[in-house]
Design brief:
five-stranded mixed sheet
Length: 157
C-alpha cells in the first residue's frame, strides 16, 4: 500500500505559534504513517510546487522561533481560477491527498476554494485577529493581545 501524502502550509500574515502548529501537524502525520510536504510561501508555493519533505528532524527545533519556518505570503495569483487550478494540478503532481492550512480568514477562503476543486483541506486558525467564525480562539491571538513587558505574565488567568 502506498503511503499517503499531505501538505501543510501557512498563509497570510504570520502569527505566534504557527511553528508549533506546523510541528504538531508533522509529528501527528508521521505517527499515523503519512508523508508530509511543507509548502513554502503559502498558496503561491502551492501554485509553483515550492515544497520540502518534512520529518521529525525538520521540525525538532522550530517552536521557539517567531514567524513561520515555512514562510508565508499572500497570493494574488491564487485568487484567480487559473491559479487555483494550477494549485490543484500541483497537488496531483506531488500525490497530495489533502492540505492542512494554517492561517486566517483569507487562508480559509483559499482552503474552501481548493476543497471545491477536489483537494480536501483542514484549517487550523492562526491569526492575531481572532476573526475565524465558529472558533473562540486562534493561534497567535493571546500573544498579540497580551504581549507583556519583560518580567510580566502573559496569561490572563
Amino acid at each position: 500500500m502506498e503511503q499517503k501524502t499531505i501538505a501543510v502550509l501557512t498563509s497570510g500574515g504570520d502569527a505566534p505559534g504557527m511553528n508549533a502548529a506546523v510541528r504538531a501537524v508533522v509529528r501527528t502525520a508521521i505517527a499515523n504513517d503519512l508523508r508530509v510536504l511543507g509548502v513554502r510561501r503559502g498558496y503561491d508555493g502551492l501554485i509553483h510546487g515550492d515544497m520540502i519533505a518534512m520529518n521529525l528532524r525538520s521540525v525538532s527545533d522550530i517552536i521557539q522561533n517567531g514567524g513561520t519556518a515555512l514562510f508565508t505570503a499572500r497570493s494574488p495569483a491564487f485568487m484567480t481560477e487559473e491559479g487555483q487550478m494550477q494549485a490543484v494540478h500541483t497537488c496531483k503532481k506531488f500525490g497530495i491527498s489533502g492540505v492542512v492550512v494554517i492561517g486566517g480568514d483569507g487562508s480559509f477562503r483559499g482552503a474552501r476554494d481548493l476543497s471545491l476543486r477536489g483537494i480536501p483541506c483542514v484549517g487550523i486558525p492562526g491569526t492575531i485577529d481572532n476573526d475565524i467564525a465558529s472558533s473562540e480562539y486562534t493561534i497567535g491571538f493571546d500573544t498579540a493581545m497580551y504581549l507583556s513587558q519583560p518580567g510580566e505574565s502573559t496569561s490572563q488567568n
